[in-house]
Amino acid sequence: MRWLSSIDHNISNMELQTFTCSFERLSSREEVSPELQGLIDASIAAMKAAYAPYSGFSVGAALLLENGVIVIGNNQENAAYPSGLCAERVAFFAAGAQYPNLRIIAAAVVASSAQYTHGDPVTPCGGCRQSMLEYELKQQHSIPLYMISPTGEIIVSPSIKQLLPLYFESKGRF
Ligand SMILES: [Zn+2]
Fold first, then answer.
1. Rounded distance, CA 61 to CA 42, Å?
2. Shortest CA distance to 145 belongs to which of 23, 30, 28?
3. Mean pLDDT along residues 126-131
4. 2, 39, 57, 108 - which has most CB atoms within 10 Å?
């Protein structure tokens, strides 16, 4: 049996397409509106209430709805590991359940670890990106995502869509 270590493509004969991911870096929450500061504060409060006894990695998420209500979520872990859920999905599913017809204006996510320090803003896992995107597509309006570091630095993605190139969609994209 022959094992393949790589497959060479002749890219000169293919049409290359490129995805661009643009984001904004903010040095502190003072650079956003008071309304968004409230959203960020809500995500931090949610993070502090996370149930993360196994990973020690607490994540908080918060969504600002068009009526001004903030819906929060945090990671909920379980002794049977896969049965838990990420903070982002807890928040988005809660908003979908409680306010199914209200537009999500913005989202924030923040994390901290009891075991180690990390300085970078936290970014959602792939599963959460796909889940969050569903709501963005459903409401037909982009959802800016504020990703916050424990040191206060913030990365802002103008939409969920750009965080997940070639995302799965039942109707097809092209
Ligand atoms: Zn996740």
1. 8
2. 23
3. 98
4. 108
Tell me the whole-structure pTM to 2 decimals: 0.90
Quick: pLDDT tens for 56-88. Answer: 999 999 999 999 999 999 999 999 999 999 999
Distance (angstroms) between ligand 1 centre and the Cα of 90 equals 9
Neighbours of 131 (CB within 10 A): 19
The 10s digit of each residue's pLDDT in 20-48 is 999 999 999 999 999 999 999 999 999 99
| C-alpha angle 71-77-78 in degrees, rounded to nearest 5 | 135
C-alpha 93 to ligand 1 mean position (Å): 12
Nearest Cα to Cα of residue 86 among 54, 58, 53: 58
Please state whether beta strands 24-26 and 154-157 pair in parallel, antiparallel, or not at all (unpaired).
antiparallel
**Active site positions, annotated:** 88
* φ and ψ at residue 37, rounded to 5 degrees: -60, -40
